[in-house]
Amino acid sequence: CPYCALQCGTRLGHGASGTVVEPSDFPVNDGSLCQKGWTAPAVLDVPDRLRRPLLRGPDGRLAPADWDTALDTVATRLRRIRDEHGPDALAVFGGGGLTNEKAYLLGKFARLALGTSQIDYNGRFCMSSAAAAGNAAFGLDRGLPFPVADLDAADTILLAGANPAETMPPLMRHLRKADLIV
Ligand code: SF4
Fold first, then answer.
1. Which atom of ligand 1 is nearest to the CA of 35?
2. Are 125 and 83 within one domain?
3. What's the rounded Cα separation, in Å, for the pair 120 and 106?
4. Same domain, 123 and 84
5. How many domains, the chain?
6. N or C: which end of the chain has fewer CB within 10 A?
7. 37 is in which domain, residue-wise?
8. Ligand 1: which residue has its CA nearest to atom 6?
């Protein structure tokens, strides 16, 4: 699932109504999804989904373009900005939904292709306060440094400032397996 950090495993397929999703056999979500996961494929089939590049012409209007033209335009403009203002005039902003491999490639693209030191990702805003609190309390800034399925065997689970029943419903399966009073 592309949405939240629980990263439930899903499979996409084709049904009579378009793209359909089903939970995959994955230890994190153990056959379940929340409402966001179940409805994730809805955006794939909407008629106005952007499926090809658009370039803004001299008249200010966006018009369809082929990929080579669009990519050449982006590369030319990035080079021009770098030549005129230096590499740090370019910045790259990734997201927590990237796979490890994509995050690695984005870092290489920023540092080697663009030459910029300006790279960050959306988790900075999301997690920096949690990392600071983890460091202050435990000397460690990791939120969950073990497989989520390990919760099944826990004797004690402390939830502070979190309500996974609201925000990550599939996680509740693991808490229930732990036979705790939640
Ligand atoms: S909890 Fe919901 S939004 Fe998060 S990964 Fe699982 S299905 Fe997606």
1. 2
2. yes
3. 10
4. yes
5. 2
6. C
7. 10-44
8. 8
Strands 92-94 and 54-56: unpaired
Q: For residue 51, tell me if it sits in a domain.
A: no
Ligand 1 atom 7 nearest Cα:
37
34 lies in some domain = yes
List % helix, strand, coil for the chain (3-state, nearest 5). Answer: 45, 15, 40
From first to last of its 182 residues, the chain has per-residue pLDDT tens of 888 888 899 999 998 888 999 998 899 998 999 999 999 998 888 999 999 999 999 999 999 999 999 999 999 999 999 999 999 999 999 987 788 899 999 999 999 999 999 999 887 877 788 788 888 988 888 767 788 999 999 888 888 788 999 989 999 989 888 876 54
Query: If you measure from the C-alpha of residue 173 to the centroid of ligand 1, how many angstroms do you get, rounded to a whole number?
Result: 13
Among the listed residues 44, 8, 7, 45, the one whose alpha carbon sits nearest the alpha carbon of residue 29: 8
Atom of ligand 1 nearest to the CA of 167: 1
Instruction: Give the position, in ligand 1's atom list, of the atom nearest the Cα of 38.
Output: 7
Identify whether 53 is part of a domain.
no
